[in-house]
Amino acid sequence: MKTVLRSQDLSCPSCIAKIEKALLSEEGVSEAKVFFNSGRIEVVHDSQKVDTKKLVEVVRSIGYEAKVSAF
Amino acid sequence: MYPNGVTFGIRFKDFFTKIFEPKFRKLLLMVSSGLLILLALVIGKLFHVLWLGDLFMILAALTAGSDIAIRAFRSLKNKHISIELLVTIAASGALIIGEYWEAAAVTFLFILGAYLESRTLNQTRKVLQGLLDLAPTTVLVLRNGESIEVNPMEVEKGETVIFKPGSKIAVDGIVINGYSTIDESAITGESLPVEKETGSQVFAGTINLDGMIKVEALRVGVDTTLAKIIHRVEEAQDEKAPTQRFIEKFAQWYTPFIIGLSIVAYLITTDIELALTLLVIGCPGALVISTPVSIVAGIGSAAKKGILIKGGEYLENAGKISAIAFDKTGTLTEGKPFVSDVVILNSAQREIHNFNIKLPTQNHEFEWNDDQLRVLKIAAVAESGSEHPLAKAVLQAAGIEVFEGIERFDTITSRGVRVIYEGREIVVGNNQFISDQKIVIPDEVNEHQLQLKSEGKTTILVSIQNYVIGLIAISDRPRKNAMDALKKLQEIGIKTIVMLTGDDHLTANSIAKTLGLSEVKSQLLPEDKLDIIRNLQNDGHIVAMVGDGINDAPALAAANLGIAMGVAGTDVAIETADIALMADDLMKIPEAIRVSKLTLRNIRQNVFIALLTVTALLVGVILGKIHMAGGMFIHEASVLLVILNGMRLLRIA
Asked: What pLDDT, on a 0 to 100 scale, did the predictor assign at position B561?
């Protein structure tokens, strides 16, 4: 499934690669894309292995607050 | 017994969980390291207790540095060399060589900068948040005769939804009952409220002001125009402009280059401080953020005015436009053709009554006399069922929609039709079509046509049993602000403005004259419009094409910038146009170009600031004029300057 997270903490584009790599290193995440300009994080993941809550935790563990968004 | 203790306990627990929120932790670390630095300065400089001052400096560096180091380590685990890693190495190095002040200042400035940057950047992202907030969370829907409150996403297509005064409209739909005024500014950018009655279209995200209305839901959730706008704006903001792509490529090489330079510098000079300072300025911060910040602010600012720009690339194009082509109908004119004149030919005065054609009777009040109405109705028979705008105007004037029992023979779109009705042959069309049917056009037709066309009207001929009996003139009013908009476009430097139309020369020239336009291309077929765009481009122009986004899609696509007008509710146009104007307002075109130009200028300013800073820092460090703390300060200040400059775009009036 595809989940959209939104973060208000993205301040330097260097965090794009950081967040993407962190999410992709999680088992069950097949795609992770960070849109710096709009502050959106799109994740394609197997909800059986990683739920949306876990995704938020992963992003938080590297220092960014994010919320799940409807669209 | 111990009420204070209990509350303290709860507060402490809150505090403890809050520490794990990145935002709060960063703020806490920033404030405490700042205070420690202040304390260290006071103790060291004022009281000259140097060892205690140094101790506080070290504590400050550790406080601010711990968070940076943790993040650097976590990224390293993901095999990513982050900016945090560079800062961690630089600060650790400074601590080792005894430069405690430098270490504390670098780490403190780094987290202070990040904090201020994310706060200011979010201001630029706020426009979108504002749009997201427009979607209401609950809505009253009528089910089994009862109104129940549900989430707007759960409303089914075709259900009836009720909106009370003051509530936000939650779906796209048609008013089926009630009367109200609605504030549509969020969707169209028009500040004036719009009156709505049965049959009117309403959009999610608008605000119902004073009446209660029942609406049939046509589109809900992600299908609404509001959701489409949000999606479009976001995609646009994330779309990389050419400038941004270039800079990102540059930035990709910049950081490794600086790391390499730092190592080389150390090997040659063995000056560890120089090497560490180079690491501090290794983040291309201001450079990578220079373009995105302007684009997010510029596109957001335009969206607030009901102007959807597809992306940074189109923003850059819009700023360079040198020629504009307008597809006349629906842009320069209202696009609502109506019958303005009906002329009975002298030669037909007698004949017209000889044709005792049985016509359906209508009870409408008409402004036409009996003969005129008769000609209109004969034409309406032939045009019956047609979707062509001119045909629709005739049908409307005759008060008729569809006839039964018509035998159709020739139909050439936008030329004419030949039908047999009640045993009589009726031909309706332009002069060319009538001649092709071997029908003689009386001389007096020419006279009438000259007059009508010079008034900007389109004429069609009506003939029955091979006799031309009359002319019908159809007019499409120029939009009220068309002249102002064209004047404005010329003022902002667009000298070549061309009107494209399928109308004949005389009609087209007359309309162009009232609008004050000199260049007209008339009698065009749809594919001709494409060629005209190409020709303009071959002449070296950067061309914008304005249309309704539906009938003129190929020409819009061929132009450097395709602008579609009045697209609220038409998805195709929102998707295909490079710039989509939600409202039918021509003044939004010069406005869109103005916003684009301002944004483009803003990007250039930012790139200039960033490049200047990077160069100055590099030269300053190598010459030994800038040290760690100073380098970090200039670096963070330039990032903030670039963001603040970009934010100016949010205030475009």
From this structure: 92
Give phi and psi for B420, each to the nearest 5: -120, 125
Show the DSSP H helices in B341-473 as ranges. Answer: 351-354, 370-383, 389-398, 431-436, 443-454
CA B398, B403, B407: angle at the middle one, nearest 5? 120
Tokens of B645: 């400059």
**Are B227 and A71 inside 8 Å of each other by CB?**
yes
CA neighbor of B617 nearest in space, from B632, B639, B601:
B632
pTM, to two decimals: 0.76
CB contact under 8 A, B83 and A14: yes
Q: What is the mean pLDDT of residues B242-251?
A: 77
d(CA B251, CA B289) in angstroms, rounded, equals: 11
Residues B469, B451: Cα–Cα separation, whole Å = 18
Burial class (CB in 10 A: 0-12, 13-18, 19+), A42: middle
* B541 contacts B323 by C-beta, under 8 angstroms: yes
Q: A–B: how many Cβ contacts below 8 A? A: 85
Mutate which of B121, B228, B249 to test chain A, going by most A C-beta atoms within 10 A? B121
Contact A38 B71 (CB under 8 A): no
pLDDT 10s digits, B377-414: 888 888 887 777 788 888 888 877 666 777 776 677 66
3-state secondary structure of A71: coil
Q: Is residue B479 within 8 Å of B332, Cβ to Cβ? A: yes
| C-alpha angle B418-B423-B425 in degrees, rounded to nearest 5 | 25
Using a CB-CB cut-off of 8 Å, the residues of chain A touching B71 are: 62-63
**Would you give the DSSP letter of residue B105?**
H
Look at residues B364, B296, B308, B340 and name the one whose alpha carbon lies nearest to residue B123: B296
Which residue from B21, B22, B125 is facing A38, i.e. has the nearest CB?
A: B125
pLDDT tens figures, B2-34: 444 444 455 666 666 666 677 788 888 889 999
> What is the nearest CA distance from A44 to chain B, expressed in angstroms?
18
Q: What is the mean pLDDT of chain B?
A: 84
CA-to-CA dists, residue B13 to B6, B29, B312, B507, B572, angstroms? 11, 18, 47, 79, 54
User: What whole-number distance in Å separates Cα of residue B582 and Cα of residue B566?
Assistant: 5
Cβ atoms of B125 and B296 closer than 8 Å: yes
CB-nearest partner of B118 from A9, A62, A70 = A9
Digit-coded pLDDT (tens) for B94-127:
999 888 988 999 899 988 888 888 888 877 777 7
By DSSP bridging, strand B146-150 and strand B323-327 are: unpaired
Q: What is the ipTM of this complex?
A: 0.72
Name every chain B residue with its beta carbon within 8 A of the beta carbon of A14: 82-83, 283, 288
Q: Please give the pLDDT value at position B3.
A: 43
- Kindly report the number of other CB atoms within 10 A of residue B536's CB atom: 22
- The residue assigned the tokens 């077929």 is B525
**What residues contact residue A42 under an 8 Å CB cut-off, 6+ apart?**
A2, A3, A4, A5, A31, A32, A33, A35
Does pLDDT of B193 surpass 80? yes
Least confident of A16-30, B471-485, B562-576, B585-599: B562-576
